[in-house]
Automatic annotation (TrEMBL):
Naturally occurring in which organism (per UniProt): Succinivibrio dextrinosolvens DSM 3072
Record-linked Gene3D superfamilies: Aspartate Aminotransferase, domain 1 (3.90.1150.10), Type I PLP-dependent aspartate aminotransferase-like (Major domain) (3.40.640.10)
Subunit structure of this chain's protein: Homodimer.
GO molecular function: identical protein binding; L-tyrosine-2-oxoglutarate transaminase activity; pyridoxal phosphate binding
Cellular component terms (Gene Ontology): cytosol
Family, similarity comment: Belongs to the class-I pyridoxal-phosphate-dependent aminotransferase family.
Occurrences of domain Aminotransferase class I/classII large (ranges): 27-391
Record InterPro entries: Aminotransferase_I/II_large (IPR004839), Asp_trans (IPR000796), PyrdxlP-dep_Trfase (IPR015424), PyrdxlP-dep_Trfase_major (IPR015421), PyrdxlP-dep_Trfase_small (IPR015422)
Protein name according to UniProt: Aromatic-amino-acid transaminase
Keywords: Aminotransferase, Pyridoxal phosphate, Transferase
Name of a matching Pfam family: Aminotran_1_2
One GO process term, biological-process aspect: L-phenylalanine biosynthetic process from chorismate via phenylpyruvate
Organismal lineage: Bacteria, Pseudomonadati, Pseudomonadota, Gammaproteobacteria, Aeromonadales
Length: 397
């Protein structure tokens, strides 16, 4: 049966981790992985999460199945984060939410739902993007097209080309957007650009599907929701895939939410019934632990305040490293890297080319993705000087 199967190409990012593990150099540095690390280079459990786990350990009485879409309160709290406490979408019934295993699960269940219900056959995805987007779309049976996103020469958003390309989309096509902290470029639309995008999608009758994997990692919980809330102002129907992997540090608990907004409550009820079938046939019902942690933290004022504080700490550490990196590179004579301070979230397109990235790995044990993406959350006060030295050496070569 299986002898005619070809080996799949290695996942570029996971393959990098394998190579990093095998590297025996003492001062090796991994700027490839997409997880937050503190100034000691550790991915620790947030204090608010530990405290919620203690509460759960004492109070939890059953490991019986959750409802197919997760507990309703979890979905409600997720909608509060997305839309803001006073939004009509929190309790009004037009928005329905479903717990999925991570942001990936939410993207996949959303794509399955679109395909199964014949809502669209084509999804437009930014180029570049988190590479899994293309695979998820294809696995769900959708065709994808790419729209330009990155202006290499100016290190910013290729906004005109993006809109020009999306003008070729057919009415009813889906457009996948990153809500904030675009992976891999770190470049987000400005408020004015979001307004234009939101109105453009509404006029062209395109269906927005928003990947919200980094809420709180850019400028703040509310600030990072600007794009989604602007889409909501002009577009009666859209989908959002939220993830709690990064902002709660719950990577392995697989906690995410698919939210679908419909034009009216009656439609939303029908949508939810079909989303349930998509979940039932893919995973039957969701894992509970991550969902219960998030619900516990967000519903307890003290824990919530602690979470906001810890999230702020992560965000501010990354932003400090951005500033430090660009200053130190300038001082070392590597050139102008100020654009790094304008980018948001965990990642940065460094502008380094494939050969320079290869030289960083070969000569200095610094691992980054071939596209030039570096994980700024992997930089700390102990490794920044050797990173600066290495980048300076490869750009001056
Ligand atoms: N979307 C983007 C843009 C991401 O970067 C990631 C994680 N790297 C995800 C979705 C998936 O997140 P999760 O781990 O919650 O599945």
């Amino acid at each position: 049966f299986f002898d005619r199967i070809d080996a799949a190409p290695a996942d570029p990012i996971l393959g990098l981790n394998e190579a990093f593990k095998k590297d025996t150099r003492a001062n090796k540095t991994n700027l490839g992985v997409g997880v937050y690390q503190n100034n000691e280079g550790k991915t620790v459990i947030l204090d608010c999460v530990k405290e919620a786990e203690k509460i759960l350990l004492e109070k939890e009485e059953t490991k019986s199945y959750l409802p197919i879409t997760g507990l309703p309160e979890f979905g409600r709290l997720a909608r509060e984060l997305i839309f803001g406490k006073d939004s009509e979408f929190v309790d009004g019934g037009k928005a329905v939410s479903c717990h999925c295993p991570g942001g990936t699960g939410a993207l996949r269940i959303g794509a399955d739902f679109i395909h199964q219900q014949n809502i669209a056959s084509t999804i437009w995805i930014s180029d570049p993007t988190w590479a899994n987007h293309y695979q998820i779309a294809t696995s769900a049976g959708l065709k994808f097209e790419r729209y330009p996103y990155y202006d290499r020469a100016n290190h910013n958003l290729a906004f005109d080309r993006m809109i020009e390309t999306l003008s070729q989309a057919k009415e009813g096509d889906v457009v996948l957007l990153h809500a904030c902290c675009h992976n891999p470029t770190g470049i987000d639309p400005t408020h004015e650009q979001w307004e234009i995008i939101a109105k453009f999608l509404a006029e062209k009758k395109l269906l927005p599907f928003i990947d919200f994997a980094y809420q709180g990692f850019g400028h703040g919980i509310e600030e990072d929701a600007f794009g989604v809330r602007t889409i909501a102002k002009y577009n009666p129907e859209f989908l959002i895939a939220s993830s709690f992997s990064k902002n709660f540090g719950l990577y392995s608990e697989r906690s995410g939410v698919l939210t679908v907004v419909s034009a009216d409550v009656e439609t939303a009820v029908k949508v939810m019934s079909q989303v349930k079938i998509a979940v039932r046939t893919a995973i039957s019902n969701p894992p509970a632990h991550g969902e219960k942690i998030v619900t516990t933290v967000l519903s307890d004022p003290t824990l919530r305040a602690k979470w906001e504080d810890e999230l702020k700490g992560m965000r501010e550490r990354i932003s400090k490293m951005r500033v430090l990196l660009s200053h130190k590179l300038k001082d070392a004579g590597a050139g102008d890297f100020d654009f790094i301070t304008e980018q948001n979230g965990m990642f940065s397109f460094s502008g380094l080319d494939k050969d320079q990235i290869e030289a960083l790995k070969r000569d200095f044990g610094i691992y980054a993705v071939a596209s030039g993406r570096i994980c700024v959350a992997g930089i700390n006060s102990n490794n920044i000087d050797s990173i600066v030295e290495a980048i300076t050496a490869v750009v001056k070569k």
